[in-house]
Design goal:
single chain
Length: 72
């Protein structure tokens, strides 16, 4: 599997954006629905951000070890 040069920056920026989105969902959810419902609404978004961060770590580790090829 070849990873393009711009893949990691896109993944990291996407992770950052999803993290900010999770905080926004929680904040606006508290204003509209209440604290408990806001936590329930924001939990999947936080989980997605954590999975994206773990994926970027795993892929960078595999590239560093030479298991995955990197584009020139």
């Amino acid at each position: 599997m070849q990873l393009t040069r711009g893949f990691f920056p896109k993944l990291l920026i996407g992770t950052f954006v999803v993290s900010i989105l999770a905080f926004m969902v929680r904040g606006f959810g508290q204003l509209i629905f209440g604290a408990e419902t806001a936590r329930l609404l924001a939990a999947p978004v936080f989980a997605l951000a954590i999975l994206m961060a773990a994926l970027s770590f795993l892929l960078s580790l595999l590239v560093r070890l030479g298991v995955l090829g990197k584009a020139q």
